[in-house]
Amino acid sequence: MLWPKNFFLQHSSARWIILSTVFDETVTWLRVRCSIQASITIGKTLRRDHHYVSLSTTEDQATWEAFCQYDDKFWSYTDCSLLIMASRLKVPYVVAFDEHIRQMSGLGIIRLPWINMSVASVGDDLNICPKFFPYLSIVSAN
Fold first, then answer.
1. What are the backbone dihedrals phi and psi of residue 121, each rounded to the nearest 5 degrees, phi first?
2. DSSP-derived pairing of the beta strands 110-112 and 16-19
3. Based on the number of CB atoms within 10 Å of its own CB, is 130 exposed (0-12), middle (13-18) or buried (19 or more)?
4. Mean pLDDT score of the chain, rounded to an integer?
């Protein structure tokens, strides 16, 4: 089984596209669940070493429309931003531990890594904090 830490180590040279919506959820989650220092350290790395992308007004509107359109799903606004931006940037691969992204496979999104994750293992294996880290969705620029 491929664990998250190993997946990221195997793709350490990849430059990731970090959406502002994902960045927001990630650093906020880390601050609340782990520590302020973890949120700042990881936030700095994500912004410095990767391609940070803010949604334009048009992309924000398209995200809102997708959020409203898929009212039969429990997709968050951030999930919908990944759907829209992956399509716009022509990047089909999304790194996610969020099950909702897997549900987008019929819309051209491929969730990576293809792993079975247990609630207890994710945070420990990423060495982020000892709690489950349910959401780190980043679109691969590789």
1. -90, -25
2. unpaired
3. exposed
4. 76
Structure tokens at 103: 């549900």
Q: Establish whether the linkage from the previous residue to 113 is cis, with ω within 30° of 0.
A: yes
Are residues 100 and 76 in contact, defined by beta-carbon separation less than 8 angstroms? yes
Q: Report the range of poorest mean pLDDT among 16-30, 69-83, 95-109.
A: 95-109
Count of all residues that appear for the chain in the document:
142
Cα–Cα distance measured from residue 60 to residue 33, given in angstroms and rounded to the nearest whole number: 28
Burial tier of 104 (Cβ tally within 10 Å: 0-12, 13-18, 19+): buried
Residues sharing a CB contact under 8 Å with residue 41, sequence separation 6 or more, in sequence order: none
**CA trace torsion 59, 67, 40, 57 (10° rounding):** 20
Statement: the pTM of the whole predicted model exceeds 0.70: yes
Q: What is the DSSP string of 38-101?
A: HHHHHHHHHHHHSEEEPPPHHHHHHHHHHHHHTTTS---HHHHHHHHHHHHTT--EEE---HHH
